[in-house]
Amino acid sequence: MNFLNTKEFAQSLDAQDELKNYKNEFYFPQHNNKDVIYFTGNSLGLQPKITKKYVDEVMDDWANMAVEGHFYSEKPWWDYHERFCNPLSKLVGAKASEVGVMNTLTVNLHLLLVSFYQPKGKRIKILCEEKAFPSDQYMLQSQVKFHGFAPEDAIVEIKRRDGELTTRQEDILAKIEELGDELALVFIGGVNYYTGQVFDMKTITAAGHKAGAIVGWDLAHAAGNIELNLHDWQVDFAAWCSYKYMNSGPGNASGYFVHEKHHTNKDLNRFAGWYGHNKERRFLMEPNFDAVEGANGWQVSNLPILTLAPYLATVEMFAEVGMDKLIAKRNVITSYLEFVLHEIDKEIDGTEFEVITPSNQEERGCQLSVYLHGQGKELFTYLMQNGVITDWREPNVIRLAPVPFYTSFEDIYNFGQILKQGILSK
């Protein structure tokens, strides 16, 4: 598409956008009595207006029924989580029996690694990407220490080449082959939080399996953002938070995936709890654990219904729209954002915005990470003070995520004008 950096062109794209009305379904922070331009859905998604209805239902049932709400509310609490299985499975390319919701992301990863990091003999190593999200780094370090290993011996990071900002797939595959029978687990973020790079999960998973390793993915920046086919890719396990692209609210309950090939494997360790126990016999209070077949067998505690309610609201919104339409708009609006950035480059001497996120649409989602060469944090501050909410990462990177549910093309144009004013005002 031949883009133009004009308000009229942006408005023409909005007029053609079949998702344009969804912007009205979200609450926006206000700046000078106007909606902000919101580019941080990769950190915390906006609140859908329908969310309050779902939360109020639970609060009303609690008020009116108390404990009886577990069984007699319109959405009984004891199986509330099961409403997620079908819509979530479509979002991540899984079978309904392979997905579930519980806890928060890093807690879920710890529970999953009880099953899927089982070092034996010389096969003790975990392969991850350089500059993984810190929580993943801490989680992996504590897991290998729990098994008696030093992180420097058990954790291998795939380094970027000198002078390069993203990771080459060929280097990942070469490192997997090099580690061979020392490799216990490949664990990578499906979308790198810093650069926005999307990894080829299908190819990397196949390579890990060929080496005899288990392969899992942190999908915090992937779920609700990119196309996923976890079942067909034969991914062993995965987990994701729900509050970024999936708009469930701060710190809310998260999703996870366990491939069906592991569901009946009695040799897998797991930390058990009563909500993973046979559903039909759960209230018999039996002393011995009998796991629910499927991903729900990894659940531990009674589910936090008040954090599931906002998640259910947004999951049903995703089911209504479908990932295909969201991805189609994502590709266009992200490309338009990149175009506008480069247009500002041309208009102002001495300005260079280096997009470090890959330009290939197969290797990126919503997020563009941009080096502000010649600019400093004062430009970020100017944007924030002028109604553009974005994200700053040291040393001089801003992360911009034009989420297709609630970002318009006119937002992109207006952002470019504010950005230009911020540079010229120095």
TrEMBL record:
<dbReference type="InterPro" id="IPR010111">
    <property type="entry name" value="Kynureninase"/>
</dbReference>
<dbReference type="GO" id="GO:0005737">
    <property type="term" value="C:cytoplasm"/>
</dbReference>
<dbReference type="GO" id="GO:0019441">
    <property type="term" value="P:L-tryptophan catabolic process to kynurenine"/>
</dbReference>
<dbReference type="Pfam" id="PF00266">
    <property type="entry name" value="Aminotran_5"/>
</dbReference>
<comment type="function">
    <text>Catalyzes the cleavage of L-kynurenine (L-Kyn) and L-3-hydroxykynurenine (L-3OHKyn) into anthranilic acid (AA) and 3-hydroxyanthranilic acid (3-OHAA), respectively.</text>
</comment>
<dbReference type="InterPro" id="IPR015424">
    <property type="entry name" value="PyrdxlP-dep_Trfase"/>
</dbReference>
<dbReference type="GO" id="GO:0009435">
    <property type="term" value="P:NAD+ biosynthetic process"/>
</dbReference>
<feature type="binding site">
    <location>
        <position position="105"/>
    </location>
    <ligand>
        <name>pyridoxal 5'-phosphate</name>
    </ligand>
</feature>
<feature type="modified residue" description="N6-(pyridoxal phosphate)lysine">
    <location>
        <position position="244"/>
    </location>
</feature>
<feature type="binding site">
    <location>
        <position position="218"/>
    </location>
    <ligand>
        <name>pyridoxal 5'-phosphate</name>
    </ligand>
</feature>
<dbReference type="GO" id="GO:0019805">
    <property type="term" value="P:quinolinate biosynthetic process"/>
</dbReference>
<protein>
    <recommendedName>
        <fullName>Kynureninase</fullName>
        <ecNumber>3.7.1.3</ecNumber>
    </recommendedName>
</protein>
<feature type="binding site">
    <location>
        <position position="106"/>
    </location>
    <ligand>
        <name>pyridoxal 5'-phosphate</name>
    </ligand>
</feature>
<feature type="binding site">
    <location>
        <position position="221"/>
    </location>
    <ligand>
        <name>pyridoxal 5'-phosphate</name>
    </ligand>
</feature>
<dbReference type="InterPro" id="IPR000192">
    <property type="entry name" value="Aminotrans_V_dom"/>
</dbReference>
<feature type="domain" description="Aminotransferase class V">
    <location>
        <begin position="176"/>
        <end position="246"/>
    </location>
</feature>
<feature type="binding site">
    <location>
        <position position="302"/>
    </location>
    <ligand>
        <name>pyridoxal 5'-phosphate</name>
    </ligand>
</feature>
<feature type="binding site">
    <location>
        <position position="243"/>
    </location>
    <ligand>
        <name>pyridoxal 5'-phosphate</name>
    </ligand>
</feature>
<comment type="subunit">
    <text>Homodimer.</text>
</comment>
<dbReference type="Pfam" id="PF22580">
    <property type="entry name" value="KYNU_C"/>
</dbReference>
<dbReference type="InterPro" id="IPR015421">
    <property type="entry name" value="PyrdxlP-dep_Trfase_major"/>
</dbReference>
<comment type="similarity">
    <text>Belongs to the kynureninase family.</text>
</comment>
<feature type="binding site">
    <location>
        <begin position="133"/>
        <end position="136"/>
    </location>
    <ligand>
        <name>pyridoxal 5'-phosphate</name>
    </ligand>
</feature>
<keyword id="KW-0663">Pyridoxal phosphate</keyword>
<dbReference type="GO" id="GO:0030170">
    <property type="term" value="F:pyridoxal phosphate binding"/>
</dbReference>
<dbReference type="GO" id="GO:0097053">
    <property type="term" value="P:L-kynurenine catabolic process"/>
</dbReference>
<comment type="pathway">
    <text>Amino-acid degradation; L-kynurenine degradation; L-alanine and anthranilate from L-kynurenine: step 1/1.</text>
</comment>
<keyword id="KW-0662">Pyridine nucleotide biosynthesis</keyword>
<comment type="pathway">
    <text>Cofactor biosynthesis; NAD(+) biosynthesis; quinolinate from L-kynurenine: step 2/3.</text>
</comment>
<keyword id="KW-0378">Hydrolase</keyword>
<feature type="binding site">
    <location>
        <position position="274"/>
    </location>
    <ligand>
        <name>pyridoxal 5'-phosphate</name>
    </ligand>
</feature>
<dbReference type="GO" id="GO:0043420">
    <property type="term" value="P:anthranilate metabolic process"/>
</dbReference>
<dbReference type="InterPro" id="IPR015422">
    <property type="entry name" value="PyrdxlP-dep_Trfase_small"/>
</dbReference>
<dbReference type="GO" id="GO:0030429">
    <property type="term" value="F:kynureninase activity"/>
</dbReference>
